[in-house]
Amino acid sequence: MSDYLHQEAPPATSTALHGEQVLQFLQVDTVPRASTARKASCSNCAMRAICMGGNLNDAERNRLDTVIHNWRMIRRGEALYRAGDAFQSIYALRSGSFKTVVAHQNGCEQVSGFFLTGETLGLDGICTERHACDAIALEDSAVCVIPFHLLEALCREMRSLQQHVHRMLSSEIVRESGVMLLLASLNADQRVAAFLLNISARQKARGYSHRELTLRMTREEIGSYLGMKLETVSRTLSRFQRDGLICVKGKRVILQDLDALDRI
Amino acid sequence: MSDYLHQEAPPATSTALHGEQVLQFLQVDTVPRASTARKASCSNCAMRAICMGGNLNDAERNRLDTVIHNWRMIRRGEALYRAGDAFQSIYALRSGSFKTVVAHQNGCEQVSGFFLTGETLGLDGICTERHACDAIALEDSAVCVIPFHLLEALCREMRSLQQHVHRMLSSEIVRESGVMLLLASLNADQRVAAFLLNISARQKARGYSHRELTLRMTREEIGSYLGMKLETVSRTLSRFQRDGLICVKGKRVILQDLDALDRI
DNA sequence: CGGCAGATTGACAACGGTCAATTTACGTGG
DNA sequence: CCACGTAAATTGACCGTTGTCAATCTGCCG
């Protein structure tokens, strides 16, 4: 159940973030200024273990630094990019969270993914040189800007980086297969349970609590992602609460019985 | 509507296959022998315009030939690879068609894609070094075997090939986003219409008729892919026929009113 | 404190699922 | 070439889950 929505292969070093690293990370995060661009550095980034440079050594990470020139702040509700925008860079999420939204001519649109700290955005733009969806910040967020042609050039020189980029692309494919499975074969209860467990697992991989979640997205956005109406999401969460599986307080959800959720 | 299921960016040279190319292609196809391995060559392959070497020049294609050692016949119903198999190669579909199936512990499984001649299989295996799904031949088929580590090595030397591989991976991501949109926001009629139009567009890109389709998969497989039951697929096709949109004769479907299908 | 977006809950309807009965298509062997 | 057996497809009747519409409640921010 929990891996239907599997977002990303869990990092080999899931030894979490503690003490100094978190502080350092938060310092960066607490200088929010919309649209600011600043020098970014992988070498001393708290996310380096689970981000782009996951399987690189120090020397390699220093080379990666040369192509990651800066980072941007995106305020809640603002777009990092929009469908149709020219594709130039991919983005490593340094702090905050995003949703991606695919739209269709007739006006219908759907949330195609949620992205948490350490995950990578923008891969959809590579094939056509234009982004295929909107990426909207769910809270004030910071992203590292990685110009893709520079990354490609470096990939031609560094086997380890090339491998990482290929794995990143492939794991996005596998993640989406999981969502397809969820949408095509699970009922409403199972979808919501899978969603909660998926967020939980991703929080855990980042060293945060996997039992206390803060859902930054609305019920409507969850529903859109899961292919159901917001009322059904709300009803399902309420029922889970009545049954003692979770405790819901608005956007805060505590998972009280992970095993039972997994068995749904 | 038609691009919900968009499988692959339409090839720049959609000038189709004619005369000699098709004959040559069919010759290859008519030497089916299960599990045979033979020398493959991109340079004189009928699929070269829409396959791996799409944007390569002759010299580059010759270099690509050095990593594509052979091709394999897979009989209808047999697996090219199975979930959990060690990942070593990706596969270019030379003739025939495949379905990919993702499974889950509790026994439920879902068709995650259909692959036609010229399309590429196996990208799901890159991220974990193991395949994430089964690939099953829907008819006797032939695939070119492309050892991925050799392809990666060549990508480090050839910018154009590197770009092609990245685009291929990215377009698989975009394709799956389209399926997610379909599964989450369309009703049964719209899903079936989108499915037919998608197959039609892909046939057209390969120089085949886009009005006369031969659906090699069963109603159950279509239903699995579209997240609905086989009875609903069957009923929907029957109704489309009653309304004069299509003509159904078992696995043969003629699209009589493409515009109306698109407007559903 | 007021205004508003977001969330919850209820009543009812409808779309698609389930179960079952036939019919059709296909591959195998006589 | 036809007969048979099995898998696939079609169609109908009925039911349940989820969507729709509406009322109400909660929480946040100016």
Explain the overall architecture.
Chains A, B: Pfam families: cNMP_binding, HTH_Crp_2. Chains A, B: InterPro entries: cNMP-bd_dom, cNMP-bd_dom_sf, Env_Response_Regulators, HTH_CRP, RmlC-like_jellyroll, WH-like_DNA-bd_sf, WH_DNA-bd_sf. The structure is a homodimer of 264-residue chains. Chain A is α+β, with helices and mostly antiparallel strands. The first copy, chain A, folds into two domains: 164 residues, Jelly Rolls (Sandwich); 78 residues, Orthogonal Bundle (Arc Repressor Mutant, subunit A). In chain A, 38% of the residues lie in helices and 21% in strands. Chain A has eight helices and twelve strands. In chain A, the strands form three sheets. A five-stranded antiparallel sheet of chain A has the order 1-2-9-4-7. Chain A has a four-stranded antiparallel sheet with strand order 3-8-5-6. In chain A, helix 3 crosses helix 4. The longest helix of chain A has 27 residues. The first copy, chain A, is globular. About 11% of the residues of chain A have low confidence. At the A-B interface, strand 6, helix 3, helix 4 and helix 6 of A face strand 6, helix 3, helix 4 and helix 6 of B. Chain B binds a DNA duplex (30 and 30 nucleotides) through helix 7.
The number of strands of chain A is: 12
Largest sheet of chain A: 5 strands, antiparallel
Q: Which residue ranges of chain A are poorly predicted, with pLDDT under 50 across at least 5 consecutive positions? A: 8-36
CATH architectural designation of the largest domain in chain A = Sandwich
Provide the spatial order of strands within the biggest beta sheet of chain A.
1-2-9-4-7
Strand content of chain A: 15-25%
Separate helix tally of chain A: 8
CATH superfamily of the largest domain in chain A: Jelly Rolls
How would you state the average pLDDT of chain A, rounded?
Answer: 83
Q: Considering DSSP H and I runs of 4 or more, what fraction of the residues of chain A is helical?
A: 25-40%
Oligomerization: homodimer
- So what's the overall shape of chain A? globular
| CATH topology assignment of the largest domain in chain A | Jelly Rolls
At the first level of CATH, the class of the largest domain in chain A is: Mainly Beta
Given the helix and strand composition of chain A, which structural class is it?
alpha+beta
Largest interface: A-B, 46 and 46 residues
Protein name (chains A, B): Fumarate/nitrate reduction transcriptional regulator Fnr
Keywords (chains A, B): DNA-binding, Transcription, Transcription regulation
InterPro entries (chains A, B): cNMP-bd_dom (IPR000595), cNMP-bd_dom_sf (IPR018490), Env_Response_Regulators (IPR050397), HTH_CRP (IPR012318), RmlC-like_jellyroll (IPR014710), WH-like_DNA-bd_sf (IPR036388), WH_DNA-bd_sf (IPR036390)
Organism (chains A, B): Cupriavidus basilensis
